[in-house]
Amino acid sequence: MKKFLTVLSLSLLIFTQSCGHKTDETEKETVELPEPVTEAYGTEWAYAGMDKQIPADDPDFSVTGAGFEYRDGWFGMGGVGYFDLTTVYEPGSDEKFSFEFDLFIKDSGVLWLGIWLYGKDSLPDDGMPGEWIKLKDGKALYGGQPYEYGKKETVKIKLTAGPDGFTVYADGKELIRTDQGSDNGGGAIKLRSENDPVYISNIAFRLGN
Hints:
This protein is mainly β.
């Protein structure tokens, strides 16, 4: 009987330590997010502040993925998984539009910004029509060239586009300007996470620049 109680006590001790170890790991993986900026947009904008979940029937934005979360005014992930956020409306090649968002990236986090995509299921480097800009490590990478905006806790990314090309800004500073419009009739706008941690907030879209 005494031997049985000793074994039972050891088993309980190992189980308790194991649970405690898992809790510590979870705490280490929790990303500390900065305070989100409060934005005010007019009715001409489709807007999501990320203080609440985007519903499945949202008329403006569609979200898919695995492992993402809504937390402290941000949407994204600090662990294993991915997310796709797309605009429901897909601008045509003859339409001007603006798209912007706040971005928080840490460590190895990567976010892709895709425009004029063949479809909402398009992925970077899948060979389908569209333009992709890769955001990571304080840089926007496009066409094999890095455009630095600096390592900041958060950055406001804005894109304006139309028949004559597109321009990307970071905190109001012009990063990328092209004079080539869409060659596939226009299409979807998407944000796609590749690595984590990466979070976004204040998603906004409108027709017109």
